[in-house]
Amino acid sequence: MDSEVFFVDPNNTICWWIPFKKTRNSVRNALKEIQNIKEYINDDKNIIKKKDFAYGSDSNLGFNAIIDTNMEYISEEDISFYNAYKKHKGNLSDKWEGYLYIYSKFLKPYILENKPINLLEIGIQNGGSLQLWEQYLPKGSTIVGVDIDPNCANLNLDNDNVKVYIGDATDKEFVCDNFSNSKFDIIIDDGSHICFDVISSFELLFEKLNYGGLYIIEDCHTSYWKNFNDYGGSFRGENTHIEYFKNLVDSINYYSIEAFPNNDEYLKARKYTEDIASISFYDSIIVIEKYYQAKKRPFKRMLAGEKNIIKELDESLKDCKVDNETNFVKFYKHD
Fold it and tell me: In whole angstroms, what is the distance from residue 10 CA to residue 169 CA?
């Protein structure tokens, strides 16, 4: 045993003890177990409360550190995408600094889960990001890269975990020929960044995304570029991919729409309402989360508590009350 984590109460009684080695997978497993313990501590059903515990015997440590036997701190940042990116020594990878935060935030649950995933990235260029994903994601993950440049086939990236395909991700025939039976947990579009291509790829590949998965689009600033490299962008241009994904917000709120101006608008909103759980817009990058399972109905209204002081409870809401026997449907992967 190289290191250990221990939780103590105010009486310095060790309640949980987790030994682990200073390896990537061992740290991941320890962090996952720690997360389970923290959830237990924070659960209102349990007598134990978060404020009564700390890692080690120093209550000032908070909940972001692992302590080893020499009282050295191993931050959770040691397995962050920031550090993986800084330490990368292979082929060149090109990303804006804000992306490192986004990837750390959205991929952390996958890292802690420590189960192999399938990732597809459109746009290979030098192959640096494919190498990064192989190094960063849980052991046994499959990394697939797609690019129209035949030179990418000469990067010698292929191995048991990394596969390279030469072709156009906007071409339905190419997608069907190569990925007819494929499903992915994460899809990243870092391809041409042309508005038409981004939209076309999404409409072809989103159905290939597993429920609970993420569809990430990089370099969305090109959606605003009208006179540069034929990206097809413009400020609030109706054919840009920024406006396209803004409009998909209506899909999330589909069940609240009382009337549609025409049938086309109805079909657009209806198309993804069972699948898109959230759309997150950041500077030049969009993250789309797919529901953990298809949402085939509106969310149910839920009422908790007993005292109804200001207004009588409508009779139609009586069945909305929740109690300890209520089973909630899981719609979000990381809830």
Answer: 57
